[in-house]
Specification:
Two copies of one chain form a homodimer.
Chain A (H helix, E strand, L loop, with lengths): L3 H8 L4 H16 L6 H7 L14 H25 L4 H18 L1 H7 L5 H5 L11 H12 L8 H21 L10 H12 L1
Helix pairs in contact in A: 2-6, 4-5, 4-6, 5-6, 5-8, 5-9, 5-10, 8-9, 9-10
The structure holds a DNA duplex.
Amino acid sequence: MGDRDSDRANYHHGNLRQALLDLALSRVEAAGLEALSLRDLASSLGVSKTAPYRHFPDRNSLLRAIIELGWADLRTDLLVSRGRETAPEAGLRAMGRAYLAFAVRRSNLYRLLFSGQGKELFTEAPCPKEIDAFAPLVEQIALCQAAGWRTSGDPQMLALSVWAQVHGAAELAIEGLVPVPEGMEPHEFWAGILETIL
Amino acid sequence: MGDRDSDRANYHHGNLRQALLDLALSRVEAAGLEALSLRDLASSLGVSKTAPYRHFPDRNSLLRAIIELGWADLRTDLLVSRGRETAPEAGLRAMGRAYLAFAVRRSNLYRLLFSGQGKELFTEAPCPKEIDAFAPLVEQIALCQAAGWRTSGDPQMLALSVWAQVHGAAELAIEGLVPVPEGMEPHEFWAGILETIL
DNA sequence: CCTCCAATGTTGGCATTGCCTACATAAGAT
DNA sequence: ATCTTATGTAGGCAATGCCAACATTGGAGG
């Protein structure tokens, strides 16, 4: 007859929301957003097919939660990478490399971030601090300017330009449209290309 | 009784492949690739649900055909835009603006181009000339270099860097993550941002 | 301690979709 | 005229998102 714990767990899972988030994130990272199925999550967690709807009104809502996790992780990577450097410009380059590494290493998640599903997360209100991966870039650019780098120009605009550059490189790297030289990691190759202009 | 033409057309449509492509393209442009359904196409064309499979083995194969159309159109826009300028650098800037305009105007199609579905189109063999939107950029960069612009540097690498920059701007513009100043078109706004660095 | 209720989970069902197998028809070559 | 092949049809299967109705549980208030 099963022990008491699993009896209790059988009906009320107890932590379904978090379990859904964890599993969904791993599914997306492993196979992309189109491979995410609420029914599959439910059955994998030993729960009925409609149980997830008690925690997320629909599939897109779950996706949006994952997107938030993704932005938070990306922001963290950027903060850590720049924290390891003292010179402002070195910090900026480190952020660029960290960004590319994140995009290549977790490409399915990265693609989801720009899939358009979470647009309203950022356009509506001021972007929540914990998931704002852009602000650290603007700050770092401002630091660089204070140190004499491209002193003319609005830091916000400069940051947008740099973001566009690095994001574009990340996408091209992920997409694999451009063959990478033998024995070279894609994010290294693309970091090198960025130096061409930046 | 119906006229003879529709009688004939009732069974053998006569031009189903092209009709599928046309309608699929318009559906994708209007609502994105996730809105593309073979069954919907079939019924809209007054044909049975499995008829499309006589022309495309599966949904992805149809998507790939659309991707080819998209790249060809983008290439054409680039060629036309640079053809209107004489000075090499002016031509390069015109290509950038045309690229951004294409991405914004046909954003759903543009997104499909980078969705990863058509990867093998470009990585395998040498990219077919008619759909190669990258080669014109390399050529233009070479022209610019011949005219004294950034004479040091491999044109291929420079072109990749420029492509990354413009593609990144295009994606950010489409995504709408960055609010565009009132009364300004997104592609103008982003073209301005590109000038910040390029 | 008991009761009720809100949170959480289940069952059954509907519509849509991709795609498979078998079958039907038309159009053109032999 | 016949036969082959390209093309289209019918039926079906499994998966999915989501809705409505019902069940269970644990905790708040009497």
